[in-house]
Design brief:
Elements (H helix, E strand, L loop, with lengths): L3 E2 L2 E2 L8 H15 L2 H15 L5 E3 L1 H7 L3 E6 L9 H15 L3 E6 L3 H12 L4 E6 H6 L1 H9 L3 E5 L6 H14 L4 E3 L10 H9 L1 H12 L6 E5 L4 H7 L8 E9 L10 H4 L1 E5 L2 E5 L24 H9 L2 E7 H15 L5 H15 L6 E6 L7 H11 L1
Parallel strand pairs: 4-14, 5-6, 5-8, 6-7, 9-10, 9-14, 10-13
Antiparallel strand pairs: 1-2, 3-4, 11-12
Helix pairs in contact: 2-4, 3-14, 4-5, 4-9, 5-7, 9-11, 10-11, 14-15
Length: 389
């Protein structure tokens, strides 16, 4: 089967989708290797999205932690406030080359939806974004941003009303409108070629980390990134696979792994099929997909990109889980030590990065990818601390 990562990945989809996936694979292979496409992609990444993003030595946080030097890869400084624009621009450009006339997408935290809406506005493509009802309520600012950018947001009121259900609705739409519509999938998940395609568009993150640390004459001893579907993490890890850097993917432990209220797919999941791929997912003994929980909407997903499943089994990447309360503490800590408000998704990586750095030597370095900025989460966090007080 095409698009396998070890035993994971593949194409587990209705036959009606196979021609569209084949067309997408041909289009991606043709244009990804084309110098003209690469030049145009790089133009939008630099002139529109704002790359390269800084690699910032978080001196105050390093001094507070007292261990290894902590560097922050500032994807939060990209146009739109998240790494999602890398992939959205890449796929939108591809759609133009393939002469598709309509874009659909799904979003959890809203950051992929905003990135897609921006890319579609810039490239003059109509866009419809599916979003779980619960996510529309906790990410209202991003809903308005998408609408302001000219996209339509379709609230999904089935199932858990989160990212999983938004993906289900987007796939239904795609099947019904296969000839003129491209499904701009936001993470390194789904049937082949999406995991490979999204990984390649996001690999600019790890390539820049590698280059920037080399310019600083510093070795990369540890790399940390949060994992929901896993797009920022795969983009961070993939270019560094052949380095000596230890890699850590951070999932959401939610209210605690023993409570059942979490999204720790790689820590607690088992192999199964969801959204067109074989990967690790949270499911019960009958194979029913479990309800998930995370304070970070972008991590609230019961599966994970298939290449992460392969990395888990090979041991190349260590996957751990961080609770809501620890992510909240990291959210506050980074805000107060460095004046940087991270997305709650990224705060999970910050929490684990602090823990890892504290057990390392000062001569060593840890890079934490800040996948997005925390403006979207400020009201949620304020509400939580207001209720406690």
């Amino acid at each position: 089967m095409k698009g396998k990562f070890g035993k994971f990945g593949g194409q587990f989809v209705p036959e009606t989708l196979l021609p569209a996936l084949d067309e997408l694979e041909r289009g991606f292979n043709k244009h990804w290797g084309d110098k003209k496409f690469q030049k145009e992609f790089n133009y939008y990444l630099t002139q529109y999205a704002g790359r390269p993003t800084p690699l910032y030595l978080a001196k105050n946080l390093t001094d507070k932690v007292g261990g290894a030097r902590i560097y922050l890869k500032r994807e939060d400084l990209l146009h739109g406030g998240a790494h999602k624009i890398n992939n959205a621009i890449g796929q939108a450009l591809l759609v133009k080359k393939m002469n598709k006339k309509r874009i659909i997408a799904e979003t959890g935290a809203g950051q992929h939806g905003v990135a897609t809406a921006m890319a579609c506005s810039a490239l003059k493509l109509p866009c419809l974004v599916y979003m779980g009802y619960e996510d529309t309520q906790r990410q209202r600012l991003n809903v308005y941003r998408m609408e302001l950018l000219g996209s339509k947001v379709q609230s999904v009121k089935i199932g858990s009303q989160t990212l999983k259900d938004a993906i289900n609705e987007a796939i239904r739409d795609w099947i019904a409108n296969i000839t003129n519509t491209h499904y701009l999938l936001g993470s390194a998940v789904g049937p082949h070629p999406y995991p490979t395609m999204v990984r390649n568009f996001q690999s600019v993150i790890g390539k820049e980390i590698k280059s920037q640390m080399k310019k600083n004459n510093k070795s990369i001893d540890g790399v940390v990134a949060c994992v929901g579907g896993g797009s920022n993490a795969i983009g961070t890890f993939y270019p560094l696979l052949n380095s000596s850097a230890k890699m850590f993917g951070v999932e959401a432990a939610g209210s605690g792994l023993k409570t059942g209220l979490h999204s720790a797919t790689l820590s607690f999941g088992t192999p199964g099929i969801l959204h067109g791929m074989l990967t690790y997912l949270l499911q019960d003994s009958a194979g029913q997909v479990s309800t998930t929980h995370s304070i970070a909407a972008g991590l609230d997903y019961p599966a994970v990109g298939p290449q992460h499943a392969q990395f888990k089994e090979s041991g190349r990447v260590k996957y751990v889980a961080v609770k809501d309360k620890d992510a909240l503490n990291a959210f506050i800590t980074l805000s107060r030590t460095e004046g940087i408000i991270p997305a709650l998704e990224s705060a999970h990586a910050v929490a684990e990065g602090i823990k890892i750095a504290s057990n390392m030597k000062r001569s060593e370095s840890v890079v934490i990818t800040l996948s997005g900025r925390g403006d979207k989460d400020v009201d949620l966090v304020r509400g939580i601390f207001h209720d406690k007080n």
